[in-house]
Design brief:
Number of strands: 17
CATH superfamily of one domain: VC0802-like
Order of helices and strands: EEHEEHEEHEEHEEEEEHEEHEEH
Number of helices: 7
Protein name: Cytosolic arginine sensor for mTORC1 subunit 2
Strand order of the largest sheet: 7-8-6-1-9-10
Main location: cytoplasm
Pfam family, one: CASTOR1_ACT-like
Distance between the termini: 34 Å
Helix content: 10-25%
Strand content: 25-35%
Structural class: alpha+beta
Largest sheet: 6 strands, mixed
GO cellular component, one term: cytosol
CATH topology of one domain: VC0802-like
CATH class of one domain: Alpha Beta
Shape: globular
Keywords: Cytoplasm
Length: 288
């Protein structure tokens, strides 16, 4: 398998709910007017607490300076696992559990913090830019490492840098889940928007983003089964960015039980999405 290191230098920020109005112009430009900005990576996640934005440095310039925006100190790089040398955008979602043991667990074992962003088509693993040499050293034995430069993939040179942590021996006890878990009653549908339909549904999508309206199903790519997903929130208090192993604590037992899951990190909490069925596996695996 290949591990692609994307060329974007990313910022992770939180926009307070009461501050979203002053950011609306910039967010609309980033989401709907790609030709008017040099931004190449943009993600917006709304939770009850806030909005989390992941955006490259060019896109970050579109946002106003405001006391309502908090920015994580580090610059982040996005990693993307591609199976069989193919294009990840043409594949079905692999889910974080499919990379739990090959990527997430080794990085946790070497005390490297990650920030996860699962999408319908692929999973992005965000790591601090300063940790990249250690990331490459940790994963070089399992993956062909490639960097994306000006849209082209080139070989990434392993610098052989470590942080002094020794990979644990096999046979160790499972990683304990140390943060409280909670699950709301509502269900989620994981979908993908056809980019060609964006101009025709922009008004509806803005309604969803900023006014919590509905969205028509006929403009979305969805899984054939029409399955629903249950969300699990990780953390009772804001998690911060320095603790290592949180994603591994959740994804490893799910991978062992062969339960697909999406995983979305936000500025304050982490969130896992698992299929509504089978409930027995869901309950017993995460001990909710």
């Amino acid at each position: 398998m290949e591990l692609h290191i994307l060329e974007h230098s990313l910022k992770v920020a939180s926009i307070e709910k009461e501050g979203i109005q002053i950011c609306t112009h910039g967010l609309i430009k980033l989401a709907f007017l790609a030709s008017k900005t040099r931004c190449k990576f943009f993600s917006l996640t709304e939770t009850p607490e806030d909005y989390t934005i992941i955006v490259d440095e060019e896109g970050f310039k579109e946002l106003p300076q405001s006391e309502h925006i908090s920015v994580a100190d580090a610059t982040w790089l996005a990693l993307n696992v591609v199976s069989g040398g193919g294009n990840a955008s043409n594949s079905q979602p692999i889910g974080v559990t499919k990379i739990a043991k090959s990527v997430i667990a080794p990085l946790a074992d070497h005390n490297i913090s990650v920030f996860m962003l699962s999408t319908y088509q692929t999973d992005f693993i965000l790591v601090r830019e300063r940790d990249l040499p250690m990331v490459m050293h940790t994963l070089s034995s399992e993956f062909t490492l490639l960097r994306v430069v000006n849209g082209e993939t080139v070989a990434a040179h392993n610098l052989g840098v470590t942080n002094g942590f020794v990979k644990p021996k096999l046979g160790m006890l499972p990683r304990p889940i140390i943060h409280p878990l909670s699950s709301p009653s509502n269900m989620f549908c994981v979908t993908s928007l056809d980019p060609d339909t964006l101009p025709s549904v922009a008004t509806l999508l803005m309604d969803v983003m900023f006014y919590s309206g509905g969205f028509p199903n006929n403009v979305l790519f969805t899984s054939a089964s029409g399955e629903l997903w249950k969300m699990v929130r990780i953390g009772g208090q804001p998690l911060g960015f320095d603790e290592c192993g949180i994603v591994a604590q959740i994804s490893e037992p799910l991978a062992t039980a062969d339960i697909p899951a999406y995983y979305i990190s936000t500025f304050k909490f982490d969130h896992a999405l698992v299929r509504k069925i089978p409930p027995n596996n869901f309950d017993s695996t995460l001990c909710i």
